[in-house]
Amino acid sequence: MFQKILAAIDSSTIGQQVFDESIAIAKWSDASLMLLHVLSNEEEGSPVLPIYAVASPYPLTLEGYPNPLDFDVFREQWKSYEQKGLALLKTFTDEAIAAGVRAEFTQSQGNPSRTICDLARTWEADHIVIGRRGHSGLSELFLGSVSNYVLHHASCSVLTVQTILAKPDPS
């Protein structure tokens, strides 16, 4: 039986699936649940830092410096991204508590792979639930895979939840 379950949540549809699996396991084993969201530019929908070579036909001010307004926009987008992550975690935590599961949450910024493994180690989790988008072959080689890293570096058991792919229309 598990005592401490770490669920790595993001704002994609797989995040909901990871949450649902982690709730089911926590209820079954009467475990505590830690919900984690990692703020990262790797996540779909995260703000993109302006890159001046391609971002704008007029990337520099007349003085030759990057336009500070671009960075202000990025900072505002990042702040909004942080708030959305916290709201998602709060909603999921409230749902878990309503379902009778002891739950808490944390949001960190950094490399998702390492952050998940580090928190699992420091929080002494005995189980991690993480989503898997199905990268394989070259796409996994070039894009990397958070779930693959966690599977090979975690200090505890790991459950990967595969993305539910739409079935092709038989007609």
3D structure, described in words:
The chain has 171 residues and is an alpha/beta fold. It has one domain: 3-Layer(aba) Sandwich (Rossmann fold), CATH 3.40.50. The protein contains 6 helices and 5 strands. Strands 3-2-1-4-5 form a 5-stranded parallel β-sheet, sandwiched between helices. The protein has helices spanning 13-29, 52-55, 68-98, 112-123, 137-143, 146-153; strands at 4-8, 32-39, 103-109, 127-132, 157-162. The mean pLDDT is 85.
Short description:
46% of the residues lie in helices and 19% in strands. It has helices at 13-29, 52-55, 68-98, 112-123, 137-143, 146-153; strands at residues 4-8, 32-39, 103-109, 127-132, 157-162.
Strand content bin: 15-25%
Q: How many extended strands?
A: 5
Shape: globular
Number of domains: 1
What is the count of helical runs? 6
Write out the strand line-up for the largest beta sheet, numbering strands in chain order: 3-2-1-4-5
Q: Structural class per helix/strand content?
A: alpha/beta
Stretches with pLDDT under 50, minimum 5 residues:
none
Top CATH class: Alpha Beta
**Annotated CATH homologous superfamily:** HUPs
Give the second-level CATH assignment, the architecture. Answer: 3-Layer(aba) Sandwich
For the termini, the CA-CA separation is 45 Å
CATH topology: Rossmann fold
- Helicity, as a percent range: 40-55%
Largest sheet: 5 strands, parallel
Mean pLDDT: 85
Order of helices and strands: EHEHHEHEHHE
